[in-house]
Amino acid sequence: MTPDEIRDRLASIIVERLNSGVSVDEVGWNSTLRDDLGIDSLGSAELLFEIEEAFGAQIGPLDARSLVTVRDAVDAISRSLQSGASAYSAA
Q: CA-based angle 16:22:13, to the nearest 5?
């Protein structure tokens, strides 16, 4: 999955499932989750759950605390997917 595909899917999750009050077009790479997209601490927990469900990604506590922008979230998802793929190929 490419970073653009991850961002598009993440934007849909933010808009449709978190009721953030923004449109998909407003979810840019540098949009901040809190200030630009209105995701509070409860919304952040919900977003992590939705990411794990939608992508099969595991975002660790250190990564979760560093998610400030959409780009940060996409990078964390990409890392998780890559580590999961390498774990499967090593087995």
A: 30
